[in-house]
Amino acid sequence: MVMNNYLSLILAITIFFVSCTKKNTDSTSEKQNHERRKTEMVITSSAFKEGELIPSKYTCDGEDISPQLSWSGVPENTKSFALINDDPDAPSGDWVHWVIFNIPGSVTKLAENISADKILDNGTKQGTSDFGKIGYGGPCPPGGTHRYYFKLFALDVYLDKDAGISKKELLAAIEGHILAESQLMGRYKRN
Question: Is the pTM of this model over 0.70?
């Protein structure tokens, strides 16, 4: 009887350690997958390079048009892309300049000067920026140099959402559907 209890205790301890090891392996694997998602896909622009100043043409001091963007390293099962452009240095915290989604998975670039239509010819939809309008609104910092992030998400679905959604609504909709993500950061300071 004592021997059976002893064997049961050893078995329970062994199962516990194997379970803990598996959880650690799963957690490490999850972290590696997240890092891989972030590094495989790359977004670039012909208008500026990572960390450089965004030309005034793409700001409120110029034509206020969207810059050209392109990307590579797209996962095979990508159904659509979503893109958020925001400024974390705004006095109010985070200022959203552009929300665009349902970009077809076969598309690997956005041309310069995307129209402010709610729905583009290829079915791409645009959300509402913190300027209260549909489409792109360029950098227009009230003071100092701000950072502007163009965050691209490769998704395994087309989103069943109407045009005009906010960044918050888009982030909630893409949760659990992100295959890869990448970002491009440019800076801007008004003269």
Answer: yes
